[in-house]
Specification:
eight-stranded parallel β-barrel; six-stranded antiparallel sheet; Jelly Rolls; disordered N terminus; 10% helix; mainly beta; binds beta-D-galactopyranose; Immunoglobulin-like
């Protein structure tokens, strides 16, 4: 996070932009995005790093790039990894020139993540390598640079199939920066800000800054740190001089006070910036900006306290892919995901099961969502044949330390997780690795506790893994929360992974069926439990959390559907080679309350009814049951109000009271009795079907507070396009997400339509991807057409760097064409 606040001049170099400034004669140069104009070839290229290699025919592209999302889906690719081509050897190359006047500078290349097994070369020289695709890293490439001449950086990747239990993506899928530093500067991740004492009157801000002297002489270095608030008002300045020996680094600690601090909180993301200016003899040689928040966190056996107030985790676990955009990181797509999660009522994220993109943490900082930052899904015991276990001994310490160094300034991050469902739980000496990793976390950061997600109960307790960490996460064990408290009176714990219910948006089975439907490869959205054997309905967790208020809350599996692990279709056994294609074409998850493209399923509203307080009511299923006239259709309502009345064609089917009138949900496992579970979280009616209107009215204290109406849709006649944002930035990155609906004459969604929709995009933008949330569809995300799935699809539009307008035209057979114009500015 480096940027200049001094009047920047923009210099155009031969192939990169350098923003720089002149103060007191020394030019300070900021970090440069190094994302454009890479060359790509997915092939084994002998000496792909060679300077004189002819790369003129290679494909030109910008990163972040995920080659696997380009497809095609193929059942020769493992469905566990998304059925996409995530493996193989590939090369990226980039030519660039640095002006001769930079010859005294230190040049570094920083990658936020390369998926994976990457090797980096500059001008034919091997510079370094990184196995773990989720780790950010930087190499000093000064010795290999030829100033004033053409340079070539080459990156070789060798990702393997079944290196993860989900879709990892493949490629330089996160951002790249080129850094031109003075020899005296703040190195990568060189600041560490914490707020040890906070009251409403004042906060102590502790800033540790590392200063690097890469010259051959000792240097007297002057550091000036300024704290500014969101309106750029200076809150304090601290100055310090320190001597740093040649070729070495030193850390300097400053304590500053911010009076009347605006605290960072859930949904109230007040942020500050610390601007670190490094000077030598009055000349600025580096300037570094760190965004941070002022807040306190406390974990007690009674709960989690943020700024002294108890907060229950209404959390979501998320994998890192962005649906149709694949793993290639995009700020807006990430922000949209978390905004949708917030709308559902989520206040917490667990970055399962690996370090997230830096963008994800920025988003959580800026939206006010707390984060568990997780390092690993495997230690030394493998879950998949090419998983992290192969690299644990060599890389675990570095990957963990780097994650913490990278992420420690984010106010959103509240815990470090050392692992998920680590198989060492079952081993007598598994605690030793837990202790080693736990100690590393505390060594890097004493301001946050550690955690892990344990699914073996009681083995993880008996084998003392749980005893090693500060806050114990238990996966899928609501039936044991009482027992855990009883046997461990002082333990601080929470549901680190819960529910794993599965369903398909818009798909309903009547009569209700609780079996895995192998004809459709879809799961009924009545959500009365079809899942893997460890899954259970959200209701059961709500109940367990209520009965065990000492649990800090829950993290549902997952917030968004993700690519790969298409449970309940496909294989289930992690210990085999995990060939998951038995139920092909299923290739994406069905777990989440939100589908792969971001459309809420019914379950979204079940969570909303429990996690939010603005009055809401939701009704399901759709009301198009042609041929079933007179037959019974179950109707469900989810609300946070007291009671709901159902009307069919204006006739009341009676009021149901929340907490009193119960709905049957099925349990299969998990310490609960197999059979029927009576849920107080849903209201339901059995209704003889007649077409027309289905309406729910919700009341609190006898007063109407919310209502929703569904109508039987007529014939599909038109397309409607609804953009999440009608104006986007003209920066070549910003996105508009367009919901594409197939509607009848009156504008009702046609809930069964599967019309093929074609898109034409003109003006200052292009079609970045399409999708429809069908986890069993083999349609490409990259064509300019897609079928509607239960009436809906999504078109993702990316603006160019030109200001102007983008016109999207959507056509379909026998449907009136729709056009929409959005602006880029
Ligand atoms: C958990 C696991 C997750 C995911 C989930 C599916 O056991 O930690 O990564 O596989 O099951 O239900």
């Amino acid at each position: 996070m480096k940027a200049l606040k001094l009047t920047p001049l923009i210099f155009l170099f031969i192939s990169i932009f350098i923003s720089s400034c002149q103060e007191n004669g020394v030019e300070v140069i900021a970090d440069q995005e190094f994302n454009k104009d890479w060359l790509f070839l997915k092939d084994t290229v002998p000496n792909g790093e060679a300077i004189n290699l002819d790369d003129s025919t290679w494909r030109k592209l910008d990163v972040p790039h995920d080659w696997a999302i380009e497809g095609p889906f193929n059942n020769k690719n493992n469905a566990r990894n998304g059925g996409l081509p995530i493996d193989g050897i590939a090369w990226y190359r980039k030519h660039f020139t640095l002006e001769a006047k930079n010859k005294n500078k230190q040049v570094a290349i920083e990658f936020d993540g390369v998926m994976d097994n990457s090797k980096i070369y500059v001008n034919g020289n091997f510079v370094g390598e990184r196995h773990y695709g989720y780790s950010g890293f930087e190499f000093d490439i000064t010795p290999y640079i030829k100033f004033g001449e053409d340079n070539i950086i080459a990156v070789k990747l060798a990702p393997e199939v079944l290196s993860e239990r989900w879709y990892p993506g493949a490629g330089i899928y996160r951002n790249v920066r080129l850094k031109l530093n003075e020899k005296v500067h703040i190195p990568q991740w060189g600041t560490f800000i914490s707020t040890p004492e906070v009251t409403s009157e004042k906060a102590t801000v502790t800033i540790k800054t590392t200063l690097k002297n890469a010259t051959d002489k000792p240097q007297e270095i002057f550091l000036e740190t300024t704290i500014i608030d969101a309106s750029n008002k200076t809150m304090g300045i601290s100055t310090e001089t320190i001597e740093v020996a040649n070729d070495s680094e030193k850390q300097l600690t400053q304590h500053m006070t911010v009076v009347n601090p605006s605290l960072w909180d859930i949904g109230k993301p007040n942020l500050y910036k610390a601007i670190s200016r490094v000077k030598i003899k009055d000349q600025i040689v580096d300037e570094f900006e760190t965004e941070f928040g002022i807040r306190t966190i406390e974990f007690k056996k009674e709960g989690f306290f943020l700024n002294g107030k108890a907060v229950e985790f209404n959390g979501v676990c998320m994998h890192h892919d962005l649906g149709p955009l694949g793993a290639a990181v995009n700020y807006r797509a990430t922000e949209r995901q978390m905004q949708i999660m917030q709308e559902m009522g989520a206040n917490a994220l667990r970055t399962s099961h690996n370090p997230p993109s830096p963008e994800m943490l920025q988003v959580c900082d800026r939206l006010g969502i707390v984060v568990i930052d997780e390092a690993f899904d495997e230690w030394k015991e493998p879950k998949v044949p090419n998983g992290y276990s192969k690299y644990f001994d060599q890389w675990a310490e570095k990957d963990l330390r780097d994650m913490i160094k990278r992420d420690r300034n984010h106010p959103s991050v509240i815990m470090w997780s050392i692992g998920n469902e680590i198989l060492e739980q079952g081993k007598k000496d598994g605690w030793k690795i837990a202790k080693m990793l736990n100690d590393i976390c505390h060594d890097e950061d004493d301001s946050r506790p550690t955690t892990a997600g344990f699914n073996y109960y009681p083995a993880s307790f008996v084998n003392q893994l749980a005893a090693q960490i500060d806050v114990v996460g238990v996966n899928y064990k609501p039936a044991y929360y009482g027992e855990i408290r009883e046997q461990n009176p002082d333990m601080i714990f929470y549901g680190s992974e819960t529910s794993s219910q599965t369903s398909t948006r818009g798909f309903y089975e009547v009569p209700q069926d609780f079996h895995v439907n192998k004809e459709t490869n879809q799961v009924s959205s009545y959500d009365v439990t079809v899942g893997p054997p460890w899954a259970y309905a959200p209701d059961i967790e709500f109940d367990a959390q209520e009965k065990n208020p000492h649990s800090l809350g829950e993290f549902i599996w997952t917030g968004f559907d993700y690519l790969g692990e298409p449970t309940p279709y496909g294989g289930r056994d992690n210990s085999t080679n995990g060939y998951w294609n038995d139920d092909w074409p299923s290739h994406a998850s069905y777990f989440a309350p939100v589908d792969l493209v971001g459309f809420p399923k019914d379950r979204f509203y079940l969570y909303q009814s429990q996690w939010t307080s603005t009055p809401m009511v939701h009704v399901l299923p759709h009301w198009n049951w042609e041929g079933k006239e007179g037959q019974t259709i179950p109707v469900y309502a989810y609300t946070n109000a007291d009671e709901v009345e159902l009307f069919v064609n204006g006739i009341s089917f009676g009021k149901k009271v929340k907490g009193k009138d119960l709905t049957d949900v099925f349990t299969e496992y998990n310490g609960f009795k197999k059979g029927i579970y009576k849920s107080k979280y849903r209201l339901s009616w059995q209704v003889p079907y007649q077409p027309g209107s289905l309406k729910v009215v919700a009341y609190t204290n006898g007063k109407q507070v919310a209502s929703k109406e569904l109508k039987t849709a007529g014939k599909p006649t038109k397309i409607s396009l609804v953009a999440d944002r009608n104006t986007i930035k003209a920066d070549g990155k910003d996105l508009s997400f367009i919901t594409v609906r197939v509607e009848d004459e009156e504008g009702n969604l046609c809930p069964k339509s599967d019309n093929l929709i074609k898109f034409k995009v003109e003006g200052s933008g292009n079609l970045a991807a399409v999708g429809n949330g069908n986890s069993a569809s083999l349609e490409s995300f990259q064509e300019n057409y897609i079928k509607s799935f239960f009436g809906k699809s999504l078109a993702i539009i990316k603006g160019t760097e030109n200001k102007g307008e983008i016109t999207i035209t959507a056509t379909g057979e026998n449907l009136a064409t729709a056009t929409l114009t959005i602006k880029t500015e």
